[in-house]
Amino acid sequence: MERVTDRVSNPFGMRAPGEPAVYGYGDANADFHVIGFDAGTHGGRETAVPFTRSLAGERLQSVLHAVGFAAEPYSDTPELNNCYLSYLRMSPGDPEDLERYIDAEIRALNAHILLPVGDEALSYVLTEFTTQARSFPADSTELHASEIRGRGFLVVPVREPTAWEPGDETALIDRLDELLNSDYRQTKGVATRIG
């Protein structure tokens, strides 16, 4: 089912407790959902757009551009196709209260590929959307650009972009290109990918 909306910022109409909030942003019909931690960590306080005005945002947007998700290598208001950006904590509210918002957003978007950025986002995604939290450490450095089968989602962990070393950007681009050139659709309940 395709969502019809002309809104790229907060297309699901979330209203988080606490302001200022940095709501989800991008293609409301995206198959790829990038999940960061918060605006203090990954940028967006000034723009209200995730992954902007920060080194993490510059590096991540460069990857999104390289694989065709973003129209430009960097923008404060990126034009995204097949990609959606959001944070675990969209506002400075109570962390436990905010979890229900990111959970609702992940389910509303219903993307096939989740890309948690950094250890906090990876820990949340592994715990809430896979049965593999005990099998894998929430270590985005160790798991960077790998594939973990989830409950209806394929998880591709992303190392904290400010800590990228030579080869990390290329590894992520290669993994995303590989996925884009495959049948990456996930069937709810059975995560499969046909290569």
How many structural units, i.e. domains?
1
Give the SSE string. EEHHEHEHHEEH
- Multimerization state: single chain
Main sheet: strand order: 1-3-2-4-6-5
Describe the sheet with the most strands.
6 strands, mixed
> How would you state the average pLDDT, rounded?
89
User: How much of the sequence is in beta strands?
Assistant: 5-15%
CATH superfamily (homologous) name: Uracil-DNA glycosylase-like domain
DSSP strand count? 6
Secondary-structure arrangement, i.e. CATH architecture: 3-Layer(aba) Sandwich
Query: Mind telling me the CATH class?
Result: Alpha Beta
Give the structural class: alpha/beta
How would the blueprint of this fold be written?
Layout: E1 25-26, E2 32-38, H1 39-42, H2 55-66, E3 83-89, H3 95-109, E4 113-116, H4 118-129, H5 140-143, E5 148-149, E6 154-155, H6 168-180
Parallel strand pairs: 2-3, 2-4, 4-6
Antiparallel strand pairs: 1-3, 5-6
What can you tell me about this protein's structure?
The protein is of the alpha/beta class. It contains six helices and six strands; from the N terminus they run E-E-H-H-E-H-E-H-H-E-E-H. It has a single domain (25-180), classed as Uracil-DNA glycosylase-like domain (Uracil-DNA Glycosylase, subunit E, 3-Layer(aba) Sandwich), CATH 3.40.470. A six-stranded mixed sheet has the order 1-3-2-4-6-5. Helix 2 (55-66) runs parallel beside helix 6 (168-180). Helices cover 31% and strands 12% of the residues.
